[in-house]
Sequence to fold (298 residues):
Amino acid sequence: MINNTGLVLEGGGMRSAYTAGVLDFFLDKGIDFPVVATASSGALIGSSYIAKQRNRNYRILKELGNNPESVSIMNWIRKREIFNMDYIFDKIPREIVPLDFGAFSKSPSQFIVGTTDIDTGSPVYYHRFDTLEELLTITRASCSLPVLAPSIIHDKKELMDGGVSNPLPILPLIQHGLNKQVVVLTRNRGYMKKATKLNWFFKHFFKEKPELRRLLRDRHILYNKTMELLYEKERKNEVFLIQPEEPLIATRIENNKEKLEKLYSQGYQEAEVKHPELERFIQSTNNTSPYATGNIPS
Fold:
């Protein structure tokens, strides 16, 4: 187990196929982190890593790519969700490519999943999952993209995509006593998020959710400031970044099987190339004292 270093996984919808490749490389090399923090689709990918189910994410990608109903405009027309959420967050993890919840629960690594309270606009983090049902509910909430999926009611809160309020949950790791982080991104270096052109639509669609509208309006500002912080911490050797060398060929709602498999392979291969440098980063932190247990912010 690596001391004093956390792992952060960016979301990005189906672009997380890249992250799946990176995490399978970590499993092949026995690279474990004491705490893994994520939001949005990173929560779905990350749970397989915590359970040490090598190749599970790849099998999920193949399943999604083989099923045209997994991502479909017709889903949105019928149920206001472009992803088939019941299929992805219920049928797949329970029946088709089951998550080993026993192994997940016994893992010494802690898993933090970020969501967004759409009434307050605040991030809400979960790190205890007593049942598979609870884990799947929180994961589904964290992946519920605004407009493209309905919100989830849990713990008396209306929750949605964790990436809206905090695209890269580094703060929970710092407050947990972890001063260095490995961060897996699904955007290439130099990417800058642009302001949305859909504010007019959000004002209509979320007319009773002013804090959510504010988050969506300013989402590009938060993301770009977070990236500036990451690059600054990278210069100080406090963060190690793994991200695509070139812009990814897939979109957030990609369901082309060949493209998803290429993203997975790209993630695995680029993690392999960066492995010697990652090992040096790990060695520079692994000689420090083990992480301190702290309180996860809510």
User: Anything to note?
Assistant: The CA atoms of residues 240 and 278 lie 7 Å apart.
